[in-house]
Hints:
alpha+beta
Amino acid sequence: xxxxxxxxxxxxxxxxxxxxxxxxxxxxxxxxxxxxxxxxxxxxxxxxxxxxxxxxxxxxxxxxxxxxxxxxxxxxxxxxxxxxxxxxxxxxxxxxxxxxxxxxxxxxxxxxxxxxxxxxxxxxxxxxxxxxxxxxxxxxxxxxxxxxxxxxxxxxxxxxxxxxxxxxxxxxxxxxxxxxxxxxxxxxxxxxxxxxx
Length: 197
């Protein structure tokens, strides 16, 4: 059954509006069928809602409506106490985001200290990381990756939107130790150790 283009667009809009969670294009097709060009409808709706009070956004291959970021503060009725992550949790989350999929041993190696199990539990409870299978090596360690909730919370379309070194430097988020190492010719302690070996 084919729909008129306007009817198909309206059906996609309605399905996204009532969805309890973000939807993939395949899930949307289950609701609206194949009566039109879904990609074109999604792009048309995203353009239509750009600059309005709500926006249609795609995060990790899933589409949903969200409040425009510049208006979110006026819709909060109660102040949520933001749960601050420990430095260890922030470092662990950054390592997983930039190196995923990554095992606990690999996280330990990059951080230089052992990660506490509670740190990974906190990140999983927040919904920002997920188990992503097992590495095909002896012992078959569990590997971790970021979740769609991570992308949504931080307003990222995909992991490619994570800030690079230049962005972090411009924002003043690099530690003085990182800047000092970079000033020494850009070699890290690990690189020096490899040369000596």
